[in-house]
Design brief:
globular, binds nicotinamide-adenine-dinucleotide, 19 strands, seven-stranded mixed sheet
Length: about 425
């Protein structure tokens, strides 16, 4: 039987992206997959129904009929409850399910016995790089954040020497040098700004400098690289945070544009820019808070709004990748295609999902009526019976180095784990 794949139209008015592009439809067709697109699904990304038809998809307004027979359903956000109810058991449902804030949706997908995959949980391993939606979308967000800043800033970014006088280059400070931050640095540099950046991960220094930025960082706690074994930032000690705040306060007062991108997985965004720091900036300065949907790096920014505080503009757009919906959809659609392709038997032209695989285990939420993701499984009840005393055993929980408040005697650069992400230059 031919594998049937359905592309959903997003329900949220603010979601501009779509989970397939004419290009990925063509590739799915070449693999032997039959594709049905919900009418109007690509309209906000610049893909008309006719483009999908030309690529070989059927386009339908009657999505219920298509969902009832779909082996694979793809979407950007978690599908609505009414759509989940129409899916057949074992259907592979792929999207950004936001599982930690969407327990009702996860439960509904478990109840429907579908195999739900949450793309934003993709493990950061080499094999999964082409499926990494956080990278593909953050990269675009970092670029757009700089353009959003320039739209609010009433001055130019590059230095210009004119007969009427010199226009000084703008100073741009990027907080958080992950995927979005590095692209923001590269974009601001291209526009001629004087760029500096900070991060808690010592390994970010070389990447920032390779893009022409100056790295601004306080001395780390003894032996602390600022990152987890997975390469993510960790919450720093109170002493580190105090020292970081003092350094940032001094630096920020001289900046024209601040781009905030700092995040800690599974935690609210760290507050890095205080009211006092905002008030220390010159009127006309701009802060773009890409972390606004996770609570914000600046408490004065407002999700979904551009607000002003004492002459400083605070830009808090939501769904920033969706502000470049054409590229964001193309890249997201490719991430999904690459995932399907990795678990597809080319000869039999059938899905070959392997639940023993690290990638499937990393993103798989529900299967055969159960919530199967490790991080979402209900906690086991604590045993009430008193167990006999045992010698201390090694914990299996992921280890987290205790934060040490002491300063190191001398700071040595930490060896870099990973080169600059693709596309940042
Ligand atoms: P992220 O979106 O979780 O966070 C953005 C940045 O904010 C990170 O660089 C983080 O260190 C920084 N940050 C957190 N708290 C901070 C604070 N208090 N002050 C300053 N900065 C702070 O991160 P990301 O963009 O997803 O990248 C995280 C890491 O994963 C990076 O090392 C990146 O290179 C790596 N990565 C690896 C792969 C892969 O191997 N497949 C793919 C993408 C990213």
């Amino acid at each position: 039987m031919t594998v049937q794949l359905t592309v959903l139209k997003e329900e949220q008015a603010s979601e501009t992206r779509v989970a397939a592009s004419p290009e990925t439809v063509k590739k799915l067709k070449a693999m032997g997959v039959s594709v049905t697109v919900e009418a109007g699904a690509g309209a906000k990304s610049g893909f008309e129904d006719s483009h999908f038809k030309q690529a070989g998809a059927s386009v339908t307004k009657a999505i219920s009929a298509s969902l009832k027979k779909a082996d694979v359903v793809v979407s950007v956000r978690a599908p609505a409850a009414a759509k989940i109810k129409l899916m057949k058991p074992d259907a592979l449902v792929i999207g950004q399910m936001n599982p930690y804030q969407n327990s009702a949706g996860v439960k509904a997908m478990a109840a429907q016995k579908v195999q739900a995959m949450s793309m934003e949980l993709m493990p950061r391993i080499t094999r999964a790089q082409s499926m990494d939606v956080l990278s593909s979308q953050s990269n675009l967000a970092g670029y757009k954040a700089v353009l959003d800043a320039t739209a609010e800033y009433n001055r130019a970014l590059p230095m210009m020497m004119t007969a009427a006088g010199t226009v000084p280059a703008a100073r741009v400070f990027v907080m958080g040098a992950g995927v979005a931050g590095l692209q923001a640095i590269a974009t601001a540099k291209r526009l001629g700004a004087i760029v500096s950046a900070t991060d808690v991960r010592a390994a970010a220094a070389e990447q920032v400098e390779s893009l022409g930025g100056t790295f601004v960082m306080v001395e780390a706690d003894a032996g602390d690289s600022g990152e987890t074994a997975g390469g993510y930032a960790k919450e720093m000690s109170a002493d580190y945070q105090k020292r970081q705040a003092a350094l940032v306060a001094e630096h920020i007062a001289k900046q024209d544009i601040v781009i905030c991108t700092a995040l800690i997985p599974g935690r609210p965004a760290p507050e890095l820019v205080t009211r006092k720091m905002v008030e220390s900036m010159k009127p006309g300065s701009v802060i773009v808070d890409l972390a606004v949907e996770q609570g914000g790096n600046c408490k004065l920014s407002k999700s979904g709004k551009v607000v002003r505080h004492k002459g400083v503009a605070l830009v808090g757009h939501q769904n920033v990748p969706g502000r470049l919906s054409g590229n964001a959809s193309e890249l997201y659609a490719r991430n999904i295609l690459n995932f399907i392709d990795a678990f597809f038997d080319k000869e039999k032209k059938q899905l070959a999902l392997d639940w023993e695989d690290e990638i499937v285990q990393g993103i798989g939420l529900t299967r055969a009526g159960e919530i199967v993701h490790e991080a979402l499984k209900p906690a086991r009840p604590v045993a009430t019976k008193k167990a006999p005393a045992k010698p201390a055993a090694k914990s299996k929980a992921p280890t987290r180095k205790p934060a040490v408040a002491k300063k190191p005697a001398a700071k040595k650069p930490t060896p870099r784990k990973r080169a600059t992400p693709k596309g940042a230059k």
